[in-house]
Amino acid sequence: MPAYYRAQLGDFVARSDAELLGHLAAAQGREGHTSAFTSQTVAWQEQITALRRMASHLICKQPNRSAWYVLIEYPIPRRQKRIDAVLLHPSRIYCLEFKTGDQAVSRAALNQVEDYALDLRDFHAASLGCQIVPVLVVNQARTTAVLQSSATSDLVWRPVMSSYDDLAVHIEHIESSAEGGSACPSAESWDSSSYRPVPTILEAAEALYAGHDVRDIASAGADPGNLTRTSEFLFQIVERARRNNEKVICIVTGVPGAGKTLAGLNLAHNPAIRSAGLPSAVFLSGNGPLVRVVSAALATSSQARSDARREVGTFIQNVHTYIRDALRSPSPPHEHIVIFDEAQRAWDATQVSRKFRQLRQRGFDVLGASFDSISESEMMLRVMDKHEGWAVLVALVGGGQEINDGEAGLEEWGRTLAASFPHWKVAASPVVLPSGPGLSGHRLFHSDHGDAPAVESADALHLSASVRSYRAESLAAWVDAVLAGDGNTARTEAQRLSSYPLVITRSLDAAKEWLHSHRRGERRAGLLASANALRLRAEGIELSPGFRGNKGQYENWFLNADGDFRSSNQLEVAASQFECQGLEIDWSCLCWGEDFLWQSSGGWCYSRLNGEKRGRVPREIKQRYWRNTYRVLLTRAREGMVLFVPHGDESDPTRPTALFDATARYLEACGVQSLG
């Protein structure tokens, strides 16, 4: 979608204000904004005045500048953002954000314009290799200093702040001092260039909630059709189930960050379902932080609507509560379509019994002892089986993502289907079938499931390309090799991560400094740590249970901006695997704990604290949880990651120096660069 207005500076100066305002208003109307907003018109008037003054000054000093181009209201598709103005120099792009009237200058405003410039660098094809200068233009700037980047290797300058009157002076200063960059394409090519942002899960959820579709969410460098193909196949399954009056379960798999949650959210809020007269769908997750953070983000993005939070709560719900309420009712649920996120984490029968017993002890009315001996997988299928006609259950399954006691895994779904629901049809990703490679060693059915229902194998149900780490599609392969103890393969995979900074340090201060120097604009950074790494407290990293128990902390950590001490950007509170699973940040510091250390003789050492000692974790299933914890933590960052490995303390048996040293050496052998 092109800018509202594009012209050479000479032509722009020659146009009257009335002509320009009319052009902008007409372009806004073509987008569906039929009513005129007085505040927007006033803002445009101020911007036009400032741009005209800038253009006249530049042309007066050098007439050939009349051939430069100015674009007003340039969109950033799918992210619901617009750049106020762009000035196209032959080898430089000026990204201008205006604060009109009495709007105050803030760090957030500088972050905003810097983020626009970073988006152009990362996702705008025609800006590839061009220098980009973000400029915040305010009515009365507090300073007229040009804040140049100390290093321009990343092509985006540090933000420049200017008053309306001094805008041309700043641009001339930059032109006289900056080295030439790559030549920019023509204004027409730049304006119509492909623009494929890779939004965060929260931005993507907001886009879907606003009526967009996953086909609008492309991945730079990844297979852009993968996510769309999966979403379209799921809708076809729904239509076929309704037409044939049958019950179907779909098993969707994918590598970490491939967009399983996005595919589920897209189906849950698909306008085509409503337009076809189908019952609404519901998105269920046992991941409390994900439900709370996504719900808060959606409600905040729609804050103008008083019913936004209530509406969001109707299609994103906690799976444990949903199952208990639905089983208690003799009637089938209203929804014929249920999406179960992180379905491999559904509770097994033992965990159900434990949780229900705890609820009964606290005085809650739960389902009764007859349900204590069945898993949540079976409960969910019983709920949907109440429908006399059709029903669709979509199980989103992540490989190696089980991180807690009582998570039954993929096999429990297969056992339940074979034992109690052979009349259900199954459509599944080929990787989880007996003939497939398996998902981190797991399969839906095994050879002893003789009564297993017939399965439709569909490649569209496996998401193979990451849309989270747009700089590093091979990150998951590197993590798999590291956790498998295969240092040679890990080093080879690390060489493919050239655009994804991956470093290691033994100093927490150095790690924080690295994050501060790399995080820019509105991108987020944060500390991550295993919930079992309790001795990180000695390094000043608190894994307080208050983070999980304090109302609003999840939302504050993931959503709040700079300056808020509760924000992840403060680098004070570490989020554990339970808080960050299913979510993401741009830059992370993984604080390595004493619970998962490499031995000099080879192999991982799994441990948990037992008073003043470290106790071993002997059971293989527990060891798998420990490995999966670090798999989750190592795959949260979109743009880059620093690993902080403490030195430990020789006098403290809970902080073994030799094992920490061996871990640091192993990670370096896996291709991680040392900060020194």
Describe this structure in words.
The chain is of the alpha/beta class. It has 3 domains: 5-191, Trna Endonuclease, Chain: A, domain 1 (3-Layer(aba) Sandwich), CATH 3.40.1350; 201-463, Rossmann fold (3-Layer(aba) Sandwich), CATH 3.40.50; 475-674, no CATH class. Helix content is 38%, strand content 18%. Strands 7, 8, 9, 10, 11, 12, 13 and 14 form an 8-stranded parallel sheet that branches. Helix 7 (201-209) packs parallel to helix 9, helix 8 (224-244) packs across helix 9 and helix 17 (475-483) runs antiparallel to helix 23. It is globular.
Summarize the structure.
The chain contains 24 helices and 23 strands. The protein is an alpha/beta fold.
Low-confidence stretches: 143-152, 216-224
Q: How many beta strands in the DSSP annotation?
A: 23
Overall geometric form: globular
Relative strand content: 15-25%
What's the overall average pLDDT, rounded? 83
CATH architecture classification of the largest domain: 3-Layer(aba) Sandwich
**How many helical elements?**
24
